[in-house]
Amino acid sequence: MSSEFVRSTALPHLEARRSCQENTCYRPHAHDAFSVGLVEAGTSVFTAPSGDTVQLRAGDVVVIAAGQVHQCNPRRGPWQYQMVHVDQEWAAAQAVGTGAGPLLKGVTVLRDARAHQRFLEWSELLFSRQPDGEGRAAEAETIQRGFRGLARALAEAAPVHTVLGGGDDALLERVLPVLQRLRDDETNPRLDELARLVGLSRFQLIRAVKSATGLAPLAWRQDQRITRARHLLRRGTPVTEVAHTLGFADQSHFHRVFRAHVAATPSTYRG
């Protein structure tokens, strides 16, 4: 397993990765960013928020809106891929006039040579040496221009698979106190206690949270913790401090959970 990460000096919210994996490496998870990925080699199985699976092959491009629970793992043998994450609002602003608006919701799988090529061009730009100081404005403009070109190509490609975004808003509002407790409480709240907060049984709560978010309560909590961990690590926070801040039992536990969500160690991710 190997992973390489790069972040833009001009657009701090942007993160790109190149990875080669061979074993099952991802639990169901979501990103708090708009994501575009490309399969470079091998095959993998992508599980959409609906639970549907799509067999991905080299050249496929996957577009994932922020907050969409998904999972992707190698099918047989090595699987090489790239993924770029950007702020959802930034992506929406850049996509105006490109026809890519519908791609900002849900999950879309594309199998299109032009979209493939535009992604590679944009990714190569991101992985090239980043200028500092006065070059940042020019860098940001170049990245924006590359993203708009990619967005046009994505919009013109015929989707292989599409899952519309959006959960059950009424349920989300109902379980919001539970989600706030799961997110903010460093302890591990009992399901019975959480269920009482919103007047549901333990099993009703599990079903409600999964319908609203795509994940069961404790899985949602872990996913949120890892999202926070990524932000802290990108700022340069030491791994031990991140593990302590987020209430993990020890660094080893944090390491295991982080790898299951990110397919890289916290140290590799921090850089």
Automatic annotation (TrEMBL):
Any Pfam family hit: AraC_binding
Recorded GO MF terms: DNA-binding transcription factor activity; sequence-specific DNA binding
Entry-linked SMART domains: HTH_ARAC (SM00342)
Keywords of this entry: Activator, DNA-binding, Transcription, Transcription regulation
HTH araC/xylS-type domain residues: 173-271
Transmembrane intervals: none
This protein's name: AraC-like DNA-binding protein
Organism, as annotated: Quadrisphaera granulorum
